[in-house]
Amino acid sequence: MYSCFSLVSRMGANASALEKEIGSDQFPPSEHYFGLVNFGNTCYCNSVLQALYFCKPFRDRVLAYKTAPKKKETLLTCLSDLFNSINTQKKKVGVVAPKKFVARLKKENEVFDNYMQQDAHEFLIYLLNTIADLLQAERKADKIAGKGKPGTPNGIINGNNNDMKTEPTWIHEIFQGTLTNETRCLCCEGVSSKDEDFLDLSVDVEQNTSITHCLRGFSNTETLCHEYKYYCETCCSKQEAQKRMQVKKLPQLLALHLKRFKYMEQSHRYTKLSYRVVFPLELRLMNTSDDAEAPDKLYDLVSVVVHCGSGPNRGHYITIVKSFGFWLLFDDDMVEKIEISSIEEFYGLATEVQKNSDSGYILFYQARDL
Ligand SMILES: [Zn+2]
């Protein structure tokens, strides 16, 4: 019988080379660097799991979930088993096989139930939403069973559970931010605003730019005119208006998705935009609203999911992560230490001679005041 998460014997050379390179006196105590076995185009999954493992607030919550009473198998119990298996290894470096997690993923969502390359961002969002749904369902079940926390209305279900749906889970505490969508009527100057929550931000990319530029573009003022006029409640008619979207609540962990895959009308397929987009190690959001709390919050880059290759359904995903001051590259079962100076190799290509590039695709920034 195959035992899940068993050490794969071929780890050998690569792993010990990494351990030697870091050096025993430099190796962070109680930290583990483990590659993940690829089960046939599952690098989209491996790359996101590694990126999330090095997002400390997320890792801590997933590890702690293990200690909860025995539950039926879900994507979250499988993820917790996987993270715990890495976290409790006697060796510092090696390889584990996320077999149970991948099997559960394929069972739960037919999109992932094949051997084709999938979109890492689609997987990330699916994973975060699935965990949030599981936590909300558990809370609801606990309330029905009368195990509601003291102070909450004694677990009685009054037929209207809609409010429980919006109660934040730790997924929301970690990743959720709020955008405010402001519309100004150009006739009466009246402003209406609507808030919407996000777990990640997807930004358009342009050639030879930076993340700050992409975020500014995201919050650019847009004029609504012609057939797109806006119905103004004050004017009681359709009017031209200006609209912009800004960050009102900054998340603890900012997940930024670069929209590198663009649908081409002519060819009816997606093409990759390998544009060079510089991502800094430290980031401040410039597109915050006037009423944002702590708008100058400083973010540190903690991990990057990198897409290698020319198209969404081809190519490969790897991850670079920061751990205890140095940078590591995770490529399925391979882990290596990289120099900070080589991070710029993952910005993309400054010229469009070829589309094949290793370019940052999902960036994870963690707020520093944690
Ligand atoms: Zn108006």
Automatic annotation (TrEMBL):
<dbReference type="InterPro" id="IPR050164">
    <property type="entry name" value="Peptidase_C19"/>
</dbReference>
<dbReference type="GO" id="GO:0004843">
    <property type="term" value="F:cysteine-type deubiquitinase activity"/>
</dbReference>
<dbReference type="GO" id="GO:0031647">
    <property type="term" value="P:regulation of protein stability"/>
</dbReference>
<dbReference type="Pfam" id="PF00443">
    <property type="entry name" value="UCH"/>
</dbReference>
<dbReference type="GO" id="GO:0005829">
    <property type="term" value="C:cytosol"/>
</dbReference>
<comment type="similarity">
    <text>Belongs to the peptidase C19 family.</text>
</comment>
<dbReference type="InterPro" id="IPR038765">
    <property type="entry name" value="Papain-like_cys_pep_sf"/>
</dbReference>
<keyword id="KW-0378">Hydrolase</keyword>
<dbReference type="GO" id="GO:0016579">
    <property type="term" value="P:protein deubiquitination"/>
</dbReference>
<dbReference type="InterPro" id="IPR028889">
    <property type="entry name" value="USP"/>
</dbReference>
<dbReference type="GO" id="GO:0060255">
    <property type="term" value="P:regulation of macromolecule metabolic process"/>
</dbReference>
<dbReference type="InterPro" id="IPR001394">
    <property type="entry name" value="Peptidase_C19_UCH"/>
</dbReference>
<protein>
    <recommendedName>
        <fullName>ubiquitinyl hydrolase 1</fullName>
        <ecNumber>3.4.19.12</ecNumber>
    </recommendedName>
</protein>
<dbReference type="GO" id="GO:0006508">
    <property type="term" value="P:proteolysis"/>
</dbReference>
<keyword id="KW-0645">Protease</keyword>
<feature type="domain" description="USP">
    <location>
        <begin position="34"/>
        <end position="368"/>
    </location>
</feature>
<dbReference type="GO" id="GO:0005634">
    <property type="term" value="C:nucleus"/>
</dbReference>
<dbReference type="InterPro" id="IPR018200">
    <property type="entry name" value="USP_CS"/>
</dbReference>
